[in-house]
Amino acid sequence: MILLVIVGLESWNVSQYALTPGEAKPVAPLVHVSGLATNSHPDTIFLTDVYLQSLTAWQWLTLHLQSHVTFVNANQLIEPGLATDELSAQGFLDMFDSKQAAQVAALRALGWPVHATPMGAVINGVVVPSPARQMGLHVADRIVGANGVKITSACDLIYLVHDVAIGQSLRLKVERAKISTKGLITWGPPQTKILVTSRPPATIANSGCSGVQGPSKSWIGVSLEDAIHYMLPGSISIDTNYIGGPSAGLAMTLALLDVLSKGSLTGHVPVAATGTIDVHGMIGDVGGVAQKTVAVERAGAKIFFVPKVEVPEASAQATPELRIIGVSTLAEVLRDLRALGGDPLVARTPPH
Q: Once rounded to an integer, what is the mean pLDDT over residues 293-316?
């Protein structure tokens, strides 16, 4: 009877996930640069992730006996109403955005002028059910045209849909995304997708686009972000195979700064960092900080930069050997690294 109970628990999926400490790994070996001078002896700067595991009832019970585990519901990982089978795709899109922002923020901090070109509207969520779901649109697909109008931003598409009547056909020009098993995203040539608009839900959120007057006349069931191409000097890539989410943004930015600048950014002290970053160097909060603190301390980090709001969570897990520093901007991190003995930020290749 006991065996039968265990077998039953192992096959019974629950609607919770477990966050457990992942790995902390140096970023520099993941960075590949051509066309710019680089540091042949980079500092140790760790990025860290967490393991996210969907649970059976048996795993849920056994993990409650372990330390450093946080349990989260599915609706804490994805906005209510969005397709849960797109969770991995959303994570890989977040990582794509994070790497792009890290590159831009690092190069701008080094004095490079980085110019942006709008490229369309990227789908970052698909509602179930919705016209978009019915027509097979997916997370990371890029919309570049609608009803013969060029789409260069999320708001371009929102403005257009806002004035389309319910039940009307919307002819979209879509660059379909292909996401490899490792999380690499590429886009194909434009395809035409025709969907029929429907009535907006009563709970639809504000678009955030200036100039939108009153509620939208119709709805297609996607959340959007701007697709932007940045003109970078040289060629930079960061290998983040199988890792999703935006939380490595700060760590990747620091590693790029160290690789592309003279001297030692950290004063040769092993540091770790977590936090999202945008192209302006603003740092945002992330999840799983308790588990990440355990991981970076195990890896040998001495300093852990975290978003200011998450200092208490990190401090509760850290031993006295790991110093937790809260930050909200890249400028603050660079100031703190100088105070710890790091060298001034000077680009190895002079910006032009």
A: 97
Residue among 251, 239, 246, 330 at smallest CA distance from 44: 251
**Is the whole-model pTM more than 0.70?**
yes
Q: For residues 121 and 249, is the Cβ–Cβ distance under 8 A? A: no
Classified as helix, coil or strand, 248 is: coil
Distance in angstroms (rounded) separating the CA atoms of residues 304 and 233:
30
The answer to whether 69 and 288 are in contact (CB under 8 A) is no
Instruction: Read off the pLDDT of residues 159-211 as tens digits, 9 standing for 90 and up.
Output: 999 989 999 999 999 999 999 988 999 999 999 999 999 998 887 777 778 87
Q: Chain centroid to CA 29: how far?
A: 20
Residue 54 and residue 41: Cα distance in Å, rounded? 40
**Domain 22-78+101-112+233-339 part of CATH 2.60.40:** no
| 3-class secondary-structure state, position 9 | helix
Task: Answer for the pair 99, 243: CB distance below 8 angstroms, yes or no.
Answer: no
116-229: which CATH topology? Answer: Pdz3 Domain (2.30.42)
Strand partners of residue 344: none
- Distance, CA of 40 to CA of 308 (rounded, Å): 32
Element (H, E) at 47: strand 45-56
Average pLDDT over residues 217-234: 95
What Å distances lie between residue 228 and 24, 31, 185, 231, CA to CA?
30, 22, 14, 10
Question: What ranges do the domains of the chain cover?
Answer: 22-78+101-112+233-339, 116-229
Over its C-alpha atoms, the chain yields an Rg (Å, rounded) of 22
Q: What is the DSSP letter of 277?
A: E
Three-class DSSP labels, 206-231: CCCCCCCCCCCCCECCEEEEEEEEEE
